[in-house]
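Q: I have 214 residues here and want to know how they pack in 3D. Can you give me a structure?
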Amino acid sequence: MLKEKIAIGEISKPRFEFRSFGQQFEEAWKRMGRLSVPVPEKVWLRRSDEIYILSRTNDINNTKIRDGKMDIKTYVQTVNGLEQWNPLMKGEFPIPVVVLRDEVFPAFQVEPPAFSQDVYTYEEFMAMVNAHSDLQAIRVHKERYGYMVNDTICEYGVVLVNGARIVTVNSESTEVEDILKTISDLRLEGVENINYLQAIKRVIGMINKPLANE
């Protein structure tokens, strides 16, 4: 069976992913740059400011807001230590109450607030989040450098979590074996694989564990 070729910035089948976070991955970054095939200039460096909504009671749905749009991904499965995530919902503000009631707050796995409007603006939604004892909004700034190694989409990123600086490396693809080879080529074997949801919870103290190389 032919493997699906994926490209940075294009939609593909749900991908598997290796990702780790810590204070330094300089060797992996250098090897990533040397092993990468040429990639489009638009992914050489990407910067974004995002809001992650964390829930104390949820570890399977990852919710973030970027450029006024809400994106929720849900965990599907783990294969050979690699996680697969699928889109659960996408929405824009102002957002209908039916979406908040039936999709967003169930994804947080918390008791929903009392809704009193048919539509909510971004500011009104964030006010509900900030007032909820089990939810926390986190500011995340990303500076991501894109590569392609072994037909997997890779990146090295500098991430600020409420101002706290960490770095991340990743490899993602629809093909598990290609990611495993990339992990080996980047000399990242044995390094913990965690997602953004888990990493941010550790940085803010919601989970009492260190990152990969703290």
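Q: Anything worth noting?
A: The first strand starts at residue 16 and ends at 22. Helices lie at 26-35, 97-108, 122-131, 176-185, 196-204.
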